Amino acid sequence: MKNYIFKNARIIDPARNIDVKGDLGVVDGRIVDAAEVRSPEIIDLEGKVLTPGFIDLHTHLRQPGNNMAETIASGTAAAAAGGFTAVVAMPNTNPPADTAGAIEFLRQTAAQKGVVRVLPCGCMTKNYEGVEMAGIGSLKSAGVVALSDDGRCIQDHALMRHVVEYAKSFNLPILDHCEDKCLAAGGVMHEGKWSVLLGMNGISGAAEELMIARNIILARQIGWKIHMQHVSVKESVELLRNARAKHIPVTGEATPHHLTLTDECIKKYDTNYKMNPPLRSEADRQALIAGVADGTITVIATDHAPHTMTAKMVEFDDAPFGIIGLETALPLTYTELVAKGVIELPDLVAKFTTGPADVLGFENYSLEAGRAADLTIFDPAAKYVIDKEKFKSNSRNTPFDGWEVQCRVVMTVVGGRVVYDARG
Amino acid sequence: MEWTRKDLLSLYDLSAEEITFILDTAEEFKKVSERRVKKVPALRGKTVVNFFVEPSTRTRVSFELAEQRLSADIVNMQAAVSSLRKGETLLDTVRNIEALQVDLVVMRHSAPGAQDFIAKHLSCGVVNAGDGAHSHPTQALLDIFTIREKLGTLKGVNVTILGDILHSRVARSNMWGLLKLGANVTFAGPSTLVPREFEEVGVRVCHDLKDALRDADVVNLLRIQHERQTAGFFPSTGEYAKFFGINRERVKEMKPGALIMHPGPINRDIELSSEVADGPNSVILEQVTNGLAVRMAVLFLVAGCVKK
Amino acid sequence: MTLKKQLYSPGEMTVAIDRIAAAIRRDFPDDSDEFALVGLYKQGVPLAERICSVIERETGRRPLFGKLDISMYRDDVGRRSGLPLIRETVIPFDVNETKLILVDDVLSTGRTIRAALDALTDYGRPSLIRLAVLVDRGNPEYPIRADYVGLESRLPSGRKISVQFDEDGEEAGIFQVEWQK
């Protein structure tokens, strides 16, 4: 295994509140003091930023079930290209990851084909149907880091309560897709001015708000961690802010697309603007940005949801929800949040590192000597145009093709191995 | 100006000048149907496919007759949405139609934006004959044509559209056309069926019938679908008729001579009583006659120019 | 930009129109049946009005008068980049068994007249149709000739001839028009 010295980098390590210019050494896949490295390959990172490896708390790898859209190999390659060293794999595959066997498959395939770390997430309920609790203990033994019925939401509040209580005894955080089914029924986009003008069925913001309120109540009552996936409406941010002020163990994530796009984009019926939760109003988007800025939202996660071109080349009503996001997350959020002065760069790095690590209960997720060398290196000054044809993902369902952005991922290092290198 | 569009998808896309252009063209086509020979060779040698992925009788017959009076060759295709979704994709279906050297596709579909979607991929012209609750431009054009014919202008005319606005492509298309031509638009009906968001584009939203009718020069009534009752939007058609139906008594509260319109088919005694539907203020059958002229004009114009 | 060159003056136009009117009067003497002039849009309409006025001045009797737009009868549907607005066709008399004189400003290829003949016969069955034009360019693509000709021009077919009446608020006369890039 190669040893490295990363020289002259701006090192940002949010867990230890470090933002300095310096060098970092890697020996046998672990972080060491640069002075201790023997016969290293020296990599000059003048003008570049080096941080702990980014974790995506919300990735759909699609394997098993839809290898045309994505595989563990292609999805993790996309993650590496996006600067992520670990992805939490959502369990709504086909078959879903609701048994120890399914988790075993995921771990084995990831070990053989994975480019970055794959952190398995198990279903809360069997077949994520929201009817019967899944074998949560067995899932834990098989190696899941969290539980989620993502794509669906347990509607039965009593069942949800039991799942959260049971998960607590196994020390597993809940990642919840917050959506009241009755209020969202039949909806294909945000319910508001544009759904009304376009004559499309809307998904009311209340559908999300209601379930976030429920989860806050359960988290308080049970005293266990519930993480709200892809928060999208203003009122949800408000609920989360108040709950966190009262030290209720809830967290929330925002996706790059909810931070950059609104429902008005749908007026041309491009199905690459169809996702769930849907793109909301400008007021919602602003509230989400404010939530990211004031620390209400501690995680930026991609909700990377690959779909084949065939699946998306249909009427808007019939198209599946979701867009890919791993390879655009950092440049989009840097351009929208840091370049526009909404937050500082270390704060953005935290949303991709300590934010998700805290949700998963990873302690001291940092660049401290002795830790595994999972590193993300990027050039914050680089401006470029997003070209979906250059993506590593099997899918191309992105609305950001052609966008001019700033901040390019330069290298991704997992356990001391360089898994992505975009240097010329 | 000159007409240069090869598609008619929505009145939202058109300028006031383009809408007026269609109405003026329709005036001349209306006369064709009044002649001894009710036919012109304008689209001789052109093939039009009427592709209806949602059942329709009136609109399809009106389009078909319009095409015949323009001497086009016609192919009618009907597909149930369910069977289409099981088999090939919509895009494949229309691409196959186009490969048969078709000049124009007239399409109805239950999904909003379905025509916009296929128009992006086809080189032949596309006319929207209704897409879900989104748009039904020829219906709105014939409504506006009828109002202009009766009142001489649209400027400053108060038009109240009453009923299930939420699910109505007729209301949305009328709204864009009427607003562009300077009419005042009021949407009225129970609050479950008339979303307030329309106020953001300059429509008056009104849940009180008296208020909605008082100054109206035109009252356009929408068909109430029974399935909205099952979905819980209102308690019963009886209650709807009582609070939002138009009958002889309600007409007395309106301006004398205010026009009564309806895109059909009418639910008699629910949204509209027979005395009013067949009464002196009703222009419902003239709408049907004008629909033919408007559709002839639209087909003539979109088939008449090359795609840019 | 366009280059406009006058071919005939307003005075020469008036003489030509008088000549057409006189020829029509010879063929349709005062004691004969009624006949009608049908002007083709755009410039055939004011031309037909002029001819009617001359005949009325000379005879005290104004011929029947109609206006015809041939847009619905053209043979180039779907081949143009844009469509002009259809103008109002007015035939305020029964075409059946009527003697009709079609009036147009310039006879060039004959395609317009072909379309006009189709249009007119959809209104009824005239007993006779004649053609009057102010300028005959003498380059027909269809076997169509004018019965009454005001002026003859042998301009090459690439050049456009434009007839202007002062009613349009433009300078009257017959012009050669060239577009230059």
Brief overview:
Chain B is an alpha/beta fold and 308 residues long. Helix content of chain B is 41%, strand content 16%. Chain C has one domain (8-73, 85-161): 3-Layer(aba) Sandwich (Rossmann fold).
Describe it for me?
The complex is a heterotrimer of chains A (424), B (308) and C (181). Chain A has 424 residues and is an alpha/beta fold. In chain A, 31% of the residues lie in helices and 22% in strands. Chain A has 14 helices and 18 strands. In chain A, strand 8 (117-122), helix 3 and strand 9 (146-147) form a beta-alpha-beta unit. Chain A is globular. With 308 residues, chain B is of the alpha/beta class. The longest helix of chain B is centred in the last third of the chain and has 21 residues, at 284-304. Chain B is globular and about 55 Å long. Chain C is globular. Chain C is an alpha/beta fold. The N and C termini of chain C lie close together (7 Å). Chains in contact: A-B, B-C.
Layout of helices and strands, plus pairs?
The complex is a heterotrimer of chains A (424), B (308) and C (181).
Chain A: E1 4-13, E2 18-27, E3 30-32, E4 41-44, E5 49-52, E6 54-59, H1 72-81, E7 84-89, H2 100-113, E8 117-122, H3 136-142, E9 146-147, H4 157-169, E10 174-176, H5 181-184, E11 189-190, H6 193-198, E12 202-203, H7 205-222, E13 226-228, H8 234-245, E14 250-254, H9 256-260, H10 282-293, E15 299-300, H11 309-312, H12 329-338, H13 345-352, H14 354-360, E16 375-385, E17 404-414, E18 417-421
Parallel strand pairs in A: 1-4, 1-5, 6-7, 7-8, 8-9, 10-13, 11-12, 13-14, 14-15
Antiparallel strand pairs in A: 1-2, 2-3, 5-16, 16-17, 17-18
Helix pairs in contact in A: 2-3, 4-7, 7-8, 8-10
Chain B: E1 7-8, H1 16-32, E2 47-53, H2 58-69, E3 73-78, H3 81-86, H4 90-98, E4 104-109, H5 114-119, E5 125-131, H6 137-151, E6 158-162, H7 169-180, E7 184-188, E8 204-206, H8 209-214, E9 218-221, H9 226-230, H10 237-244, H11 248-252, E10 259-261, H12 274-277, H13 284-304
Parallel strand pairs in B: 1-5, 2-3, 2-4, 4-5, 6-7, 6-9, 7-8, 9-10
Chain C: E1 2-8, H1 10-27, E2 35-40, H2 44-59, E3 64-68, E4 99-107, H3 111-123, E5 128-136, E6 148-152, E7 160-164, E8 173-179
Parallel strand pairs in C: 2-3, 2-4, 4-5, 5-6
Antiparallel strand pairs in C: 1-8, 7-8
Helix pairs in contact in C: 1-2
